[in-house]
UniProtKB/TrEMBL annotation, chain A:
<dbReference type="InterPro" id="IPR017871">
    <property type="entry name" value="ABC_transporter-like_CS"/>
</dbReference>
<dbReference type="InterPro" id="IPR027417">
    <property type="entry name" value="P-loop_NTPase"/>
</dbReference>
<dbReference type="InterPro" id="IPR003439">
    <property type="entry name" value="ABC_transporter-like_ATP-bd"/>
</dbReference>
<feature type="domain" description="ABC transporter">
    <location>
        <begin position="5"/>
        <end position="219"/>
    </location>
</feature>
<dbReference type="Pfam" id="PF00005">
    <property type="entry name" value="ABC_tran"/>
</dbReference>
<dbReference type="GO" id="GO:0016887">
    <property type="term" value="F:ATP hydrolysis activity"/>
</dbReference>
<keyword id="KW-0067">ATP-binding</keyword>
<dbReference type="InterPro" id="IPR050093">
    <property type="entry name" value="ABC_SmlMolc_Importer"/>
</dbReference>
<protein>
    <submittedName>
        <fullName>Putative thiamine transport system ATP-binding protein</fullName>
    </submittedName>
</protein>
Automatic annotation (TrEMBL), chain B:
<feature type="transmembrane region" description="Helical">
    <location>
        <begin position="148"/>
        <end position="172"/>
    </location>
</feature>
<feature type="transmembrane region" description="Helical">
    <location>
        <begin position="311"/>
        <end position="334"/>
    </location>
</feature>
<keyword id="KW-1003">Cell membrane</keyword>
<dbReference type="GO" id="GO:0005886">
    <property type="term" value="C:plasma membrane"/>
</dbReference>
<dbReference type="InterPro" id="IPR000515">
    <property type="entry name" value="MetI-like"/>
</dbReference>
<feature type="transmembrane region" description="Helical">
    <location>
        <begin position="425"/>
        <end position="445"/>
    </location>
</feature>
<dbReference type="GO" id="GO:0055085">
    <property type="term" value="P:transmembrane transport"/>
</dbReference>
<feature type="transmembrane region" description="Helical">
    <location>
        <begin position="533"/>
        <end position="554"/>
    </location>
</feature>
<feature type="transmembrane region" description="Helical">
    <location>
        <begin position="394"/>
        <end position="413"/>
    </location>
</feature>
């Protein structure tokens, strides 16, 4: 974990056209904010990191997590936690089952239940295990998504406009909750946002992205 | 991607097209006089000559072509006019709700219901007699089984109309028709004319393959032709089945030659239809260029469209209702509108005799649907993991088994089975059903499968779940409803199959459909009512389960409702 998350000479192409270039290291417990207007390929950068780049895009460069290269690992073996703008809670599962989905398999059922209960209580959702996620408020859903992600014990955290769907007060609260938890676990955080408030609250380095134009082409 | 998943698309194509290709080959050889089972290996033009010498040939060919073209044009015409005149209105939604379940009503039940309705002693005449018509006895006119095949074409029209309407509705959803219509209306176009000029081309381009399927099917259908079509001579496809059933093996060669002719007829009709499309497109472009607003036609065309669509739906529903009355009728003399008394005898007889057919129907439908569902889910999952959607060419391949007339390849398939020494039983019948069940399951599940939010897969992977784990624990449960509906569609296709069961089963596999159609020649209306209704119930039950089960299982999961 000494090195955090390192993006080594990353370049994402749409077809033949370079879309975004990043070369950065996020130390454990710190936040790197990637800012820029929509359409510059910020989410595509995260898709490359999670190994789910859509068809038509290609990525180059290497990704290291805690000193280990994860560039070619299958998505489910990378252990990168991700939060989207939408909560993406599984609608067929209860709140508790959603949270438990992140837990590593195995162990006695009672211990799994306790882990879920404690994690939910930790974000102020004690006793919510049997609730239908569709009946929760936006802020509650965001917290369940956070719990589910943290229970999977990720080694880094990716935030894809994770707070954009929330109103101002809730947004600040949720942001603090996420950053606090990440810092407590010494997780490197890579946050993609178009909101300057998010970047200020994160307090870390900021990478400004611009729409790529042909005139920006550098000589190789 | 695991190897088995990589191989699934090829396996699916094999299950779908293998029997078609083998069957066509197995038909072609006997048509050319090669039939080792009867000791003929040389090849000759004798089968062809026997076919040409058959005196009914010209009439049979004419019947196949006219009933196919007339019913397809009528069904497409009604759907088009109805969409043009009424899409987006309340009347439209009401009829849409009425028509959707009709899609699954088996062809045979629809045909029987229509026959009971429009026959000289049918319900319509009974309702009008004697007070309006003065008839105390059924009039001596031919209505069903008329020599021109008009009642048969009517039966096919009312049966295929809901199918084309549902296909057109799906296409309409992708056509941005509201904005197109807003533009057309702002420019002063009438509703029908504006829709035909601005929306129809986009919709038709999407439903072209289903229209071809309806044409190919209507030209070669057997069960509807046995119930509503003329018998001397019958349509070409019915004659093929008669020859196939002849104890004289030489007749199978004639049947094979006729099957090749049937294939050529369908290919020719499809080519003709394609030419018609080009002509209509040219004329349509000129019509559009002239700029007529056509607003004056709406008061005539809109009621006409509503009437035609309503009549079509009503004739199926009333037909089923008539089947229901007959199934519980005691004595019912003409011209009484209702039977004198009710009787449970028909259903008691059905309970005594129908068990075997019910079991066979259920087993065949369950296995065929299960296999088809597994193959389709595998194909869609492979498509998802490769991130490569189905191409236009792939779509053609899925429609292909529905475009080849059943009478052209099923006889060959049975001949091959005999030659290979395989007994024709329930196993081959299931394989033959899969050929027809697969495409419909694929078409039913494809859109909801692809519409699933792929970030759920990203989240699951980020939580450490393998792709296969995601399929079982996230995607399939979330898509339970569309999966069950696709299964119901598959089961209804299987239940309704007449020819594959009859021919590939060698006449020894009895299902609700084969037994119901076999009653056609007997004229026992009470038995027909019972069996026809049982056949309909057999397709409605899976749909009911597909709607009820997810609602029960996910009763506390609001996110999965609607």
């Amino acid at each position: 974990m000494a090195e955090g998350l390192r993006l080594d000479g990353l370049c994402i192409l749409r077809g033949e056209t370079p879309l975004i270039e990043v070369d950065a290291t996020v130390p454990p417990g710190e936040v790197l904010t990637v800012m820029g207007p929509s359409g510059v390929g910020k989410s595509t950068l995260l898709a490359y990191l999670t190994g789910t780049l859509p068809k038509g895009f290609a990525g180059m460069g290497r990704v290291f997590l805690g000193g280990q290269e994860i560039t070619d690992l299958p998505p489910h073996a990378r252990r990168l936690g991700i939060l989207f703008q939408d909560d993406l809670l599984f609608p067929h599962l209860s709140v508790g089952a959603n949270a438990a989905f992140g837990l590593a398999p195995g162990g006695p059922a009672a211990r799994r239940r306790r882990a879920v209960a404690e994690a939910l209580a930790d974000v102020g959702l004690g006793g919510f295990e049997d609730r239908d996620p569709a009946t929760l408020s936006g802020g509650q859903k965001a917290r369940v998504a956070l719990v589910r992600m943290l229970l999977s014990e990720p080694r880094a955290l990716l935030l894809d406009e994770a707070f954009s769907g929330l109103d101002a007060t809730l947004r600040a609260q949720t942001r603090r909750l996420v950053f606090d938890r990440a810092r407590a676990r010494a997780l490197p955080v890579l946050m993609v946002t178009h909101d300057a408030d998010d970047a200020r609250a994160a307090g870390g380095a900021v990478l400004e992205m611009q729409a790529w134009r042909p005139t920006d082409r550098r000589a190789p | 991607m695991p190897l088995w998943l990589r191989l699934l698309p090829a396996l699916t194509l094999l299950a779908m097209l293998g029997p078609v290709a083998a069957g066509l080959a197995g038909t072609l050889l006997p048509a050319l006089g090669v039939y080792p089972a009867a000791g003929r290996t040389g090849g000759s033009v004798q089968p062809l000559r026997a076919l040409l010498d058959w005196p009914g040939l010209a009439a049979a060919v004419r019947l196949s072509v006219t009933t196919g073209l007339v019913s397809t044009m009528a069904a497409l015409g009604i759907v088009t006019l109805f969409l043009a005149g009424w899409s987006g209105t309340r009347a439209f939604r009401v009829l849409e709700l009425l028509l959707s379940p009709l899609l699954s009503v088996p062809h045979a039940a629809t045909a029987f219901g229509l026959a009971f309705l429009i026959a000289p002693s049918g319900w319509i005449v009974r309702l009008l007699s004697p007070w309006a018509t003065g008839w105390e006895r059924p009039p001596d006119v031919i209505v069903t089984q008329d020599p021109w095949g008009l009642s048969m074409a009517a039966g096919l029209t009312v049966k295929e109309m809901p199918f084309l309407l549902l296909m057109a509705l799906a296409a309409l959803g992708q056509s941005d028709w509201r904005r197109r219509m807003r533009v057309a209306t702002a420019l002063g176009y009438g509703r029908v004319a504006g829709w035909l000029k601005a929306v129809f081309p986009a919709v038709y381009a999407q439903i072209r393959l289903p229209v071809y399927v309806v044409l190919a099917y209507s030209m070669s259908v057997v069960d509807v032709a046995l119930i509503l079509g003329p018998s001397t001579p019958p349509t070409l496809s019915v004659q093929i089945v008669r020859w196939m059933g002849d104890p004289d093996l030489a007749m199978r060669l004639t049947a094979a030659a006729a099957a090749m002719l049937q294939l050529a007829l369908v290919a020719g009709a499809l080519a003709l239809w394609r030419l018609g499309e080009v002509a209509v497109a040219r004329i349509g472009l000129r019509w559009i260029a002239r700029g007529g607003r056509g607003a004056g036609a709406d008061p005539v065309l809109r009621p006409l469209a509503l009437g035609a669509a309503g009549l079509s739906a009503a004739s199926v529903l009333l037909g089923l209702f008539t089947l229901a009355i007959w199934s519980v009728a005691g004595f019912w003399g003409f011209p009484d509108a209702l039977p004198e008394g009710l009787s449970g005898r028909s259903w008691m007889r059905f309970a005594r005799d129908g068990g075997g057919a019910i079991a066979q129907t259920a087993i065949i439908a369950a296995v065929a649907t299960g296999v088809a569902l597994a193959l389709v889910i595998g194909c869609l999952e492979a498509e998802h993991r490769r991130r490569r959607p189905l191409s236009q060419k792939g779509l053609w391949l899925i429609y292909l088994p529905l475009l080849v007339p059943q009478t052209a390849f099923l006889p060959g398939l049975q001949t091959l089975l005999l030659t290979a020494g395989l007994s024709s039983g329930i196993g081959p019948v299931i394989l033959a059903h899969i050929v027809f069940v697969l495409p419909y399951v694929f078409l039913s599940l494809g859109d909801p499968w692809r519409a699933w939010e792929p970030r759920y897969a990203t989240v699951a992977a980020a939580l450490g779940t393998t792709p296969t784990g995601t399929l079982w624990r996230v995607r399939l449960p979330m898509l339970l409803r569309p999966v069950l509906i696709a299964a119901a569609v598959g089961a209804s296709v299987s239940v309704g199959q007449y020819l594959p069961t009859l021919i590939v089963g060698g006449g020894r596999v009895e299902t609700l459909t084969t037994e119901a159609v076999a009653l056609a020649s007997g004229g026992d209306r009470r038995a027909i009512g019972t069996w026809g209704l049982a056949q309909t119930a057999a397709v409605i039950l899976p749909f009911a389960l597909a709607l009820i089960l997810p609602a029960l299982i996910f009763r506390n999961r609001r996110g999965l409702h609607g």
